[in-house]
Design goal:
By secondary structure, the chain is mostly helical. 69% of the residues lie in helices and 2% in strands. It has helices at residues 9-22, 35-42, 46-58, 75-78, 81-89, 96-129, 139-156, 161-167, 170-180, 184-203, 206-227; strands at 62-63, 71-72. Strands 1-2 form a two-stranded antiparallel ribbon. The longest helix is centred in the middle third of the chain and has 34 residues, at 96-129. It is elongated and about 65 Å long.
């Protein structure tokens, strides 16, 4: 039998505080209740609450100053990469708009990390792209393949920040990609991209691959918006 580890009290407190922040119970720029009351509400000891709050302050969710009420930070403007990771995992922000925001970031980053990756790992990428013909038509198969491709591209890119950003929304990427690839139009669009990218690699056209990626990411974003009622 495989036993799941029991969450530590501080982790439970942290999770409950995050849920309360994201659902608006503790609104942006509001003050949290006093330590004694908040610990009682969450069901933990005050030392455990302090530990959880320090973690959230470190990650950009809370603003703690001794002798003053703890403020819920405007995490959209004051948050960090850790905030992005939580938002990407939260069902409360899995709107088509939020996915579009992430796709806009991918549009900005993917052309650069694709070119960098091709400079160092062309053969490895070719080997991966050769598997496209074996792809099953199910949306989840396309979602998994697309994740593996972009993950490999960021891993082989010179700039390590690319993979940190992508890793921050791995689960969201795959779940939303499965929705995206539920449309045959989207699957065909990506297959065309994979084939064209392979041609660029084989011909050594790295900057053509960069422009191809930029164009494809822009078209994918437009497809997502149109399919979710946001227009072209």
């Amino acid at each position: 039998m495989s036993w799941k580890p029991v969450p530590k009290p501080a982790k439970i407190a942290e999770s409950r505080l995050l849920d309360a922040i994201l659902d608006g119970t503790f609104a942006i720029n509001s003050s949290l209740p006093g330590e004694r009351d908040l610990a009682a509400q969450i069901g933990v000891t005050r030392p455990t609450l302090r530990e959880a709050m320090q973690r959230l302050a470190r990650d950009g969710w809370l603003d703690i100053h001794h002798g003053k009420p703890t403020r819920v930070r405007d995490y959209w403007h004051e948050g960090s990469l850790a905030v992005l990771g939580v938002l990407a995992e939260s069902a409360q922000v899995h709107s088509p708009d939020f996915v579009a925001y992430l796709m806009e970031i991918r549009l900005l980053l993917a052309p650069a990390y694709t070119r960098q990756a091709l400079e160092t790992a062309a053969n490895e990428l070719l080997e991966l792209l050769e598997r496209v013909n074996q792809l099953e038509p199910e949306p989840v198969c396309y979602a998994q393949f697309d994740w593996v491709l972009h993950s490999l591209l960021t891993q082989r890119a010179e700039n390590p920040v690319f993979r940190l950003l992508l890793n921050s929304f791995e689960n969201l990427y795959q779940s939303m990609a499965a929705r995206y690839f539920s449309f045959d139009e989207c699957r065909q669009h990506s297959r065309s991209f994979y084939a064209a990218l392979r041609n660029c690699i084989e011909s050594g056209q790295l900057y053509d691959a960069e422009e191809l990626t930029r164009q494809t990411m822009a078209e994918s974003l437009a497809l997502w918006k149109r399919l979710n009622g946001g227009g072209a």
